Amino acid sequence: xxxxxxxxxxxxxxxxxxxxxxxxxxxxxxxxxxxxxxxxxxxxxxxxxxxxxxxxxxxxxxxxxxxxx
Length: 69
Known about the structure:
Blueprint: H1 5-59, H2 61-68
Helix pairs in contact: 1-2
């Protein structure tokens, strides 16, 4: 059976569409991983900021007095 140019074009279109779907799936997984990483980084930064704030209140008598009021 001889293949025509249209048959080859259809096959290339199918392969191209499959590649596009796979690449979109890969991008979706990358975005999900990036979102998890950004949330973890934000939580760590918030914890560090709170630690710094509590440390300042605990070591600065004037700040501790003001906080208690």
